[in-house]
Structures are given as structure tokens and as C-alpha cells.
Design goal:
Elements (H helix, E strand, L loop, with lengths): L9 E2 L5 E7 L7 E18 L2 E8 L5 E2 L15 E6 L3 E9 L3 E12 L14 E7 L3 E3 L3 E4 L3 E5 L2 E12 L10 E3 L15 E4 L7 E7 L2 E17 L5 E7 L5 E6 L3 E7 L3 E10 L4 E12 L7 E6 L4 E5 L3 E4 L3 E6 L2 E12 L10 E3 L1 H37 L5
Parallel strand pairs: 11-14, 15-18, 25-28
Antiparallel strand pairs: 1-2, 2-3, 3-4, 3-13, 5-6, 6-7, 7-8, 8-9, 8-10, 11-13, 12-13, 16-17, 17-18, 17-27, 19-20, 20-21, 21-22, 22-23, 22-24, 25-27, 26-27
């Protein structure tokens, strides 16, 4: 039996990759065993000297099936595998498995090249590195898996995001099945049926913690703030819950100082929270640009919780000044995580004499000051109106009498 792998590749402007893997049993009429169409991006955290940096790349138009690493699977020997290669040394591999009713992407592997200076400038390590993870991509047999929403796969220091995905393995024909299994992210909220997610389990307000990160050139981060994590996840009994976890002053912390990136890691045995502060050299502003959380949730279906976002722009102030906000702030990191910040004062990159610089207050605090001013002004106006009315009334009452 001769196995022939064939590729049908087309790219749109949105970089949506469409491909198929075919098997031909000795003739020219190959039958596709895997078909896929999706867009993808890869967020990779790597070491660059004494700092951590983040590389963000998108699946390029040059991607293609790597034939010698792809397979339609053999009976009791191997499972179907789709390997996609792109760039200089990058490989995305999906392996499939099935039971009597469902098939799934059992495992996803990603190999990236730290020697590629375009995406990994000043990387401390060189050469290829591979990370992997299981996935939640699954569908009914003979149905197409369809997901318009983001699909996030967390692999150690890499987050892979797929979107607008259409995938099917073990195809009954050489086309996508008309029937679909939609991902949970695309499902509308039911009006009847299972109960709605439980309300947040909120502990007492977190205590203020103080942080000081020092590098070779002195202090690069000074912070005083109370932090709280709001995490939404599915429990083992298939109910969705949102819980709040406080970051305690007793949690250990560390950090790194860099010319363009300052990091703060706070953690204990069950969780590590990393905050990344970036700087816009043109506008001379610093801001919270990245949040990454790795945590263990014993009562969750997936006990290992991991999420990140490196495109934030919160807690912003001029370099040399400090950002201050007494009001509670909510920073939405992902669908599963919100970071609540209380009583914050923070300064990154340039800190002199281990003291906060001039204060730049948040908009919320400014609005809070406007409220009593507006109320006071309204009361003063009301008093003035009453006084004028009283004087006018008194004048009219005197005008009604004549002197004899």
C-alpha cells in the first residue's frame, strides 16, 4: 500500500490557513483523512540576558504541511498527525485520537527557534525548543469541529491562540461534514436548563503589600498595592464558578530590571503571578503591559490553570513619576481572569533614592473628587435660590401697607 500525502494550501488576508492531509491506497483518488482551516498566533516568553521578553508571531502565508512528520495513522500503530512547518525551524504538530463517539486533538506540540533573531532578539539560549500540551478541541465522530472564538492552548512559556477554526479528522469523505460540533466558547448562554454560574466567592479585601525590585543600576520598580485575582473555571461537578484569591504580603516576590521591561513575580506553592511593566520611549510613559498567572485549582476539571495577556496598557504614568489610585481598578486579563488592584502606587524604570516620584492620579480618583464638589455647588446654589426667594417675598409683603 502506497501512502501519498497531499496538501491544498490557500491563505486569505487574515492569514487563515487551509490545508488537508490525504491518503491514496495505490491510485490517484486520494481520500483526505485530516482537514483544517484556522488562524493562529504564538506568544512566547524567553530570557534575554537579565530580562524576560515576549515574542508574538502569527502563522505566516508560507506555512505548509511537513510530509515526513504527518500521517493518516496506522491500525493500532499510530494516530493521525498533522505537522505544519513555517519560517526557519518552526513546527506546529497536532495529534488526533478517537473513541466510539468522539475524536479530539489529543496533543499539540510547538517547536520554535531561539536562534531566529527576528523574533527572539538577544535570546540567552540558541537553537530549537519544544513545548507541548493537551487540548480541549474535540467533536463528535463524522462531524466538523467549529470554533469562531479564541482557543487558547497553554504550554509552559508559550500560549498558542487559534481562532476561526474548522477542523476534522477521520473524515468519511474528502470534504468537511455539514454537521458541526461547536466549541463551548461559541455557545449562547442558555435561557433554561443548567443553573447560571455561581456568584463570586469573595474573601475579605486584600492587604497592601510593598515591593522593591533592584537591578545593577539600582531600584527599577517600587510598588505599594493590594492585589486580588478573580478566576472563572469549571469545577469537577461541571458547574462554573468565579472565585477571588488574595495576594498576601507574606507571599515571596522577585523581579528583574531591563531597559525596556521590568518584571515582578509574586507567588507561593500553588500560584505564581507575574506582572510585566513596559515603557514607551517616544512618549516617556511606563505602564503595566503584561500579566501571566500559573496556578493550581484542586477542585477544577483542569487543576493546572494558566492564562496571560501581554497587550495591556494599565497603571500608566510618566517615567520618573509614580502612578497612584485609591479607587479599586479592574484589569481584565482574559475571559478567565480579572486582576483587581486596590490602593495602588507604583513606579517603574526610574526610581530615585528608593522613593516615589511626583504623583499622577488615576481618572477614577479625579472623578471621586468631582462628586463632593458638584454636590457642594448644588447645595450652595439651592441656598442662594431660597435666600433670593425669601428677600423677594419679604419686599412684596411690605409693599402691601400704606403709611397713615
Amino acid at each position: 500500500m502506497i501512502h501519498i500525502l497531499s496538501l491544498s494550501l490557500s491563505l486569505s488576508l487574515s492569514l487563515s490557513l487551509s490545508l488537508s492531509l490525504s491518503l491514496s491506497p495505490g491510485n490517484n483518488n486520494g481520500t483526505a483523512c485530516i482537514m483544517a482551516s484556522f488562524s493562529a498566533s504564538f506568544l512566547t516568553t524567553y530570557d534575554a540576558g537579565h530580562v524576560s521578553k515576549v515574542s508574538n508571531m502569527t502563522l505566516p502565508a508560507s506555512a505548509e504541511v511537513l510530509k515526513n512528520s504527518s500521517s493518516c495513522g496506522e491500525k493500532n500503530a499510530s494516530e493521525p498527525t498533522l505537522a505544519i512547518t513555517f519560517g526557519e525551524g518552526y513546527l506546529l504538530k497536532l495529534t488526533f485520537t478517537k473513541n466510539t463517539t468522539r475524536y479530539s486533538v489529543q496533543h499539540m506540540y510547538f517547536t520554535y527557534n531561539l536562534s531566529d533573531t527576528q523574533f527572539f532578539p538577544n535570546a540567552s539560549s540558541k537553537g530549537p525548543d519544544t513545548v507541548d500540551s493537551t487540548t480541549d478541541i474535540k467533536a463528535d465522530i463524522n462531524k466538523t469541529y467549529r470554533c469562531v472564538s479564541d482557543i487558547r492552548v497553554y504550554m509552559k512559556n508559550v500560549t498558542i491562540v487559534l481562532w476561526d477554526a474548522t477542523i476534522q479528522a477521520y473524515l468519511p469523505s474528502s470534504n468537511f461534514s455539514k454537521e458541526e460540533t461547536r466549541c463551548p466558547q461559541d455557545q449562547p448562554s442558555p435561557t433554561t436548563g443548567p443553573p447560571s454560574p455561581s456568584p463570586p466567592l469573595v474573601p475579605t479585601n486584600p492587604s497592601v503589600s510593598k515591593y522593591n525590585v533592584t537591578g545593577d543600576n539600582g531600584t527599577c520598580l517600587l510598588a505599594s498595592m493590594a492585589l486580588q485575582l478573580n478566576i472563572t473555571y469549571m469545577k469537577k461537578d461541571n458547574t462554573t464558578v468565579t472565585r477571588a484569591f488574595n495576594i498576601n504580603p507574606s507571599d515571596k516576590y522577585s523581579g528583574t530590571c531591563g531597559a525596556q521591561l521590568v518584571t515582578l513575580k509574586v507567588g507561593n506553592k500553588s500560584r505564581v503571578l507575574e506582572l510585566q511593566f513596559g515603557m514607551n520611549a517616544t512618549s516617556s510613559l511606563f505602564f503595566l503591559q503584561g500579566v501571566q498567572l500559573n496556578m493550581t485549582l484542586p477542585d477544577a476539571i483542569e487543576p493546572t490553570f494558566s492564562t496571560s495577556n501581554y497587550s495591556l496598557k494599565a497603571l500608566q504614568a510618566s517615567v520618573g513619576n509614580s502612578y497612584k489610585c485609591n479607587s479599586e481598578e479592574h484589569i481584565f486579563v482574559s475571559k478567565a481572569l480579572a486582576l483587581n488592584v486596590f490602593s495602588v502606587q507604583v513606579q517603574a524604570f526610574r526610581v530615585e533614592s528608593d522613593r516615589f516620584g511626583s504623583v499622577e492620579e488615576c481618572v477614577q480618583d479625579g472623578n471621586n473628587m468631582l462628586i463632593p464638589i458638584a454636590v457642594g455647588g448644588a447645595l450652595a446654589g439651592l441656598v442662594l435660590i431660597v435666600l433670593i426667594a425669601y428677600l423677594i417675598g419679604r419686599k412684596r409683603s411690605h409693599a402691601g401697607y400704606q403709611t397713615i
